[in-house]
Specification:
The protein has helices at residues 9-23, 36-53, 71-83, 87-101, 131-148, 151-168, 203-212, 222-233, 271-283, 286-305, 325-338, 340-351, 366-379; strands spanning 69-70, 113-116, 122-126, 169-172, 179-182, 193-196, 243-246, 252-253, 355-356, 359-360. By secondary structure, it is mainly alpha-helical.
Length: 389
């Protein structure tokens, strides 16, 4: 049984979004420069993160996964170093990534996983790249090129973008014609039904890629990206961790047998709240405001119940009994745009009290540390688009 696909379409979604934008339930919180106290929080927790999760050579360690490193972890460190104007750490992270995940080729998509193998040797454990990390890395490189006047970073970003375009995007059919979509990795390229990850669709970054990389039509992915996200989440439901789409028609279909939980809103999908908030704050995208109302409903649910489950079904029903602070971090900038008071209460009630010497909450959870920090930084106006480099 398939879900709906494209029955609203790009034009219809734009009309609904324009109405939502005009009605806007609140104005953005903390517009402009952050208060000095917020900057101190970001600086202090960035230093704590470096001490707890990073080596001096630029490698980010995941304590929960036997100190392995991922391209995702490296990408978050680049973005955070850029936001903190920490050029030395940025370069250490970039250099380690090139040497160890990219085989000393700055234009090669990085392997996603590095660690110790069965023989005790450290190295690449899986050569496959991951598109979300590749986007974040290219975006951070463009920002670094502009911020520090380093044209070689722009050249590296353009080389990565060419590889990303060729190996991690594909043209699919659809009710409004063929459209290019982002795959989670090259492994998803050859299939009749592709498994897509909506949290990888960094539309705000595609806009910056379009400005910096005229050789590839990144702007052409924006409208299909929003229409497909709307189709994947279905009316009145939360976006899924994974979405299955027919290549020939662009139709969204149900997950295959055994993968039904891919439709849940969990550790992948909560990031959609952050990316939509970024596109609305930085680019004024009304479709982002329309889709953010999914998360306004979560804000109301959190107020009523005093908690959110770390994993929820499509309609917000609990799938697990525990909470996850990384989810709350990603909600901060989203709720600030559609439920301003909820963002303040979330910070004061759920996140600020758990701050410790390593960051927040669980010291083994490097992933959650990143999303709390990134959420707080975007909420407080301490991150912006990469822009032309």
């Amino acid at each position: 049984m398939s879900t709906r696909s494209g029955d609203i379409g790009t034009a219809g979604l734009k009309r609904l979004a324009a109405a939502a934008f005009a009605l806007g339930s609140s104005s953005p919180a903390h517009a402009g420069a952050a208060q000095p106290a917020a900057r101190l929080v970001l600086a202090d927790t960035w230093g704590a993160y470096r001490d707890a999760y990073m080596q001096a050579d630029g490698r980010v360690r995941d304590p929960r996964e036997h100190d392995r490193s991922t391209s995702e972890g490296q990408s978050y460190a680049l973005v955070r170093a850029l936001a903190m104007d920490d050029a030395a750490t940025f370069e250490a992270v970039r250099a380690w990534t090139v040497q160890n995940l990219q085989g000393n080729d700055p234009g090669r998509l990085p392997a996603w996983l590095w660690g110790v193998d069965a023989t005790g040797a450290w190295g690449v454990l899986d050569t496959m790249p991951a598109a979300d990390a590749d986007e974040w890395i290219a975006w951070a490189l463009l920002g670094g090129a502009r911020q520090w006047g380093r044209p070689e970073l722009r050249e590296q970003a353009l080389a990565l973008l060419a590889e990303l375009w060729d190996r991690e995007t594909v043209v699919i059919g659809g009710p409004e014609g063929s459209q290019r979509v982002l795959l989670p990795g090259p492994w998803a390229m050859d299939a009749d039904v592709v498994r897509l990850n909506p949290s990888y669709w960094l539309v705000f970054a595609w806009r910056d890629f379009a400005a910096a990389d005229p050789a590839h039509d990144w702007a052409s992915m924006v409208d299909p990206g929003y229409a497909l996200l709307d189709a994947c989440r279905r009316e009145g439901r939360l976006p899924p961790d994974w979405c299955y789409v027919r290549v020939d028609t662009g139709e969204v279909v149900a997950p295959p047998a055994g993968a039904e939980r891919d439709a849940d809103f969990g550790f992948e999908a909560f990031r959609v709240a952050w990316t939509l908030a970024a596109d609305l704050k930085w680019h004024g995208e009304p479709r982002a405001r329309y889709l953010l109302h999914d998360f306004a409903r979560l804000a109301d649910q959190w107020r009523a119940d005093g908690r959110l489950s770390a994993v929820m079904g499509p309609s917000g029903e609990d799938r697990v009994s525990y909470e996850y602070q990384g989810l709350y971090g990603a909600m901060l900038p989203a709720w600030a745009l559609v439920r301003r008071a909820r963002a303040d209460a979330l910070w004061q009630g759920e996140l600020a009290p758990t701050r410790d010497v390593h960051g927040w909450g669980d010291a083994a959870d490097y992933y959650g540390q990143n999303w709390i920090w990134l959420g707080y930084a975007l909420w407080q106006g301490q991150m912006g688009p990469a822009g032309p480099a």
